[in-house]
Amino acid sequence: MNKTIENGFSFIIFGGTGDLTNRKIIPAFFQLYKRKILPNNFKIIIIGRREYTQKDYYEFLYNALSKFASINNKDDFLNFAKYIIYYKMDYLNNALYPKLKQFILDIEAQYYIAKNRIYYLASSQEHFEIIIQNLKNNHFIEDATISRLMIEKPFGKNLENAKALNELLVDTFKEENIYRVDHYLGKEMLQNILVIRFSNIIFESLWNNQFIDHIQITSSETIGIENRGKLYDSTGAIRDMLQNHMLQLLSLVAMEKPKDLTPDSIKDEKTKVLQNIKHYSIEEICENVVLGQYGSKGNIKAYREEDNVNPNSMTETFVAMRLEIDNPRWRGVNFYFRTGKRMAKKCTEIVVQFKEVQNNLYKDFNILPNSLIIKIQPMEGIIMQFNTKKPRTINTIVPVQMDFCQNCEIGFNSPEAYERLLFDVLRGDSTLFTRWDEVEISWKLIDKIIDSCKNKSLTFPNYLPGENGPKEADMLLARFNHKWHNEEDNYENI
Ligand SMILES: NC(=O)c1ccc[n+]([C@@H]2O[C@H](COP(=O)([O-])OP(=O)(O)OC[C@H]3O[C@@H](n4cnc5c(N)ncnc54)[C@H](OP(=O)(O)O)[C@@H]3O)[C@@H](O)[C@H]2O)c1
What we know:
The chain is an alpha/beta fold. The chain folds into two domains: 9-152, Rossmann fold (3-Layer(aba) Sandwich); 185-478, Dihydrodipicolinate Reductase, domain 2. Helices cover 35% and strands 18% of the residues. It has 15 helices and 14 strands. The chain has helices at residues 19-34, 54-68, 74-81, 97-110, 128-137, 159-172, 188-198, 201-204, 229-233, 236-254, 263-275, 282-288, 417-426, 436-453, 471-478; strands at residues 9-14, 42-48, 84-88, 117-121, 148-151, 178-180, 212-220, 289-292, 318-323, 334-340, 347-354, 371-377, 381-389, 397-405. Strands 8-9-10-7-11-12-13-14 form an eight-stranded mixed β-sheet, with helices on both faces. The chain has a six-stranded parallel β-sheet with strand order 3-2-1-4-5-6, with helices on one face. α6 packs antiparallel against α14 (436-453), α10 (236-254) packs across α11 (263-275) and α12 (282-288) packs across α14 (436-453). It is globular and about 80 Å long. The chain binds NADP nicotinamide-adenine-dinucleotide phosphate. NADP nicotinamide-adenine-dinucleotide phosphate binds at residues 15-20, 48-50, 90-92, 122-125, 152-153.
């Protein structure tokens, strides 16, 4: 039996009435269905505890899809809905699992579906253990070579907790069948980073400390924590963003060329980047990490005033950091990270800042170094900044940008990250999912940062909604004569 989907599959979602399932998973399946790349015999089994009949569930599903996907005609919806079954169950009740297993077996027999099962944990983290334990104890994994598990981030709360979770997972599923989701990896431009780097000699040959001065990775949001107060207050920006998304971006930007494009070769190289992050002492970490928390402005509430947040909370909603990679390619290059809530712009981007020209003929002119900006969201594209002579002047040099806007292309509509991720799981390709060793090294680093920053004396709140974090984040870069790239930085129109 292989992991292809021609013989059908069952996709079993624990937490099937939740926000993630309705906003991302089901709309992504709907898209895959409309693109006609799903087989005729599959079923999505939605496990929820609500007293829904199948009809009630379809109403709920229709509302969710109307909001988060586009239903162009009702027949599309009705045809798609036939593949989805609502199953009421309290998944914390051990006694109910044998009945669920029989239900899945009956569905497989009735619809001639191979025992090709994918279990998706879209439940709260505290429930992961009990669900996995029950899948194991009740022998849900009949064929370990093809039974797959998708598990949502965050993967654990710290190294110790992540290790315990992982032990349970590998005791139940094979490592190659565990798909640890970091949905950033499903984004088009992220997948494009390797192509940009390794298929263009103009970048490949310059991608090292001889030509690159520093690299900035920013992921900023304008929204606050919305209704995630309780969860966010025990998580914070370091665990929520740095441990997973930001370090994944770093490893793609900084990795060596993999020996081929297989998932393991790529992950081997990504892991080496994380292993080579320079070790800092506690004092060095404190000097290189800036934490922030937003205050109030106008009718925007301060973080501490949000629902379910401790009014004296010291949880960070912003983090900026500098780190170095101790290997021949990157020694001496600063990598800066910045992520936060309630910032000026929604933007995820990587800025590769090149060095100045040696023995520059134009040293007396005010010229900027070249930079390459990889825009990941909401705009997707690449911007190359270089210098040119301003027309109709004797010798005025101005920086200009050449840009490729991927999601501006007519007719181009980037697939949602989850569409790609689900399709990859269905065909058994784990390239865009994190392997345990990547997670383990990330947690080691993050635990050390969190421990080192615990005793830092901080005055929160220290930035206002609409600002790009506290001023200390600017000072972190100023120490090295660098400056954050902000979208509002203007370039001459010539
Ligand atoms: N939402 C996102 O965008 C997002 C993004 C990345 C990662 N995640 C992660 O994904 C997971 C799910 O997040 P979410 O936002 O979808 O959470 P959510 O909206 O709170 O959904 C939780 C789901 O679990 C169900 N549930 C809770 N206890 C149950 C029980 N005893 N038996 C059966 N069902 C039960 C809930 O059912 P009811 O509907 O009956 O309450 C609901 O369907 C979390 O681990 C989160 O950290 C979420």
